[in-house]
Write a structure and sequence with these properties.
Blueprint lengths: L39 E6 L2 E8 L4 E5 L6 H12 L4 E6 L15 H14 L5 E6 L1 H12 L4 E7 L10 H13 L4 H8 L8 H4 L5 E7 L6 H10 L3 E6 L6 H4 L1 H11 L2
Parallel strand pairs: 3-4, 3-5, 5-6, 6-7, 7-8
Antiparallel strand pairs: 1-2, 2-4
Length: 264
């Protein structure tokens, strides 16, 4: 989810923050990149076609892209870094990347169920799920709705119901809709996830271990990320310094080795 919040802040000391990653560097890996021939596949899920890619081998990692984005736009570097030791599964949601659009509003619930259906078709359970922005929302909803499919979760730049965000958030989305009437992504970001899809109370039902991530000037306010972290039964919090909403895009030399370590 994009937005208009710029914050130069660090996590308060009373919240345990994952540390030690700043000194880690990722060596270039000889692996296939997103979009390489042979990696792309199509599945029929819930009555429509869904594009996905598979790279590497090992314990599976599911990568869930940001809203209005794609595998290539969200995860190109991570596929290179993760696939030498892990099987990377990366779908593209309806109307994103290669996957054809469908009529009607966009729905986090539908995207979550499409993702679950893909994992079932691939006979994958106990999957580690890494999601950015909208993908982070889907990752948390997947852990809530289909706990048998999920082992651990990394969610960066995710948010709960927009009513939990500052009023200016909905004002920004309303302005987006005035500029582009009928924009389904702006409608999704303004009003969803709904409280019955993802809320502080629902987060308490997630038993997978979760790494909550964000930048210190993320589009999602720091206070909101802290609320998510505090509501989860088994979670860690990592706020990256001098970083915005695109943590994996901006800081792959920090994020990639640390996330692999967290998922061990």
């Amino acid at each position: 989810m994009p937005g208009g919040f710029g914050r130069e802040r660090w996590v308060p000391m009373q919240f345990p923050v994952l540390a030690g990653v700043l000194a880690l560097l990722v060596a270039p890996a000889a692996a296939t990149a997103a979009g390489d021939a042979g990696a792309g596949h199509w599945a029929m899920v819930n009555g429509h076609r869904l594009y996905y890619e598979v790279h590497g081998s090992g314990r599976p990692i599911l990568l869930l892209h940001g809203g209005g984005n794609s595998i290539e736009g969200s995860w190109k570097r991570q596929i290179v870094d993760f696939s030498p030791t892990r099987e990377v599964i990366a779908p593209e949601q309806v109307g994103n990347g290669h996957t054809p659009d469908l009529p009607g509003p966009y729905s986090y619930g539908r995207m979550t169920e499409d993702t679950a259906a893909l994992l079932v078709q691939l006979h994958r359970k106990d999957v580690d799920v890494v999601g950015w922005s909208d993908g982070g929302i889907i990752a948390l909803m997947l852990a809530l709705r289909h706990p048998e499919l999920v082992r651990r979760v990394v969610a960066t730049g995710a948010n709960l119901n927009p009513d939990e965000l500052p009023p200016s958030w909905k004002t920004d989305r309303d302005n987006d809709l005035k500029a582009s009437p009928g924009d389904r992504l702006a409608l999704l970001w303004r009003d969803f996830p709904s409280r019955d899809e993802l809320s502080l109370a629902l987060l308490k039902q997630i038993h997978a271990k979760v790494l909550v991530m964000g930048g210190d000037h993320d589009l999602i306010p720091l206070e909101h990320l802290v609320k998510i972290y505090q509501a989860l039964p088994d979670a860690e919090l990592w706020i990256l310094p001098h970083t915005g909403h695109g943590t994996f895009l901006e800081r792959p030399e920090w994020t990639d080795p640390f996330v692999l370590s967290f998922l061990q």
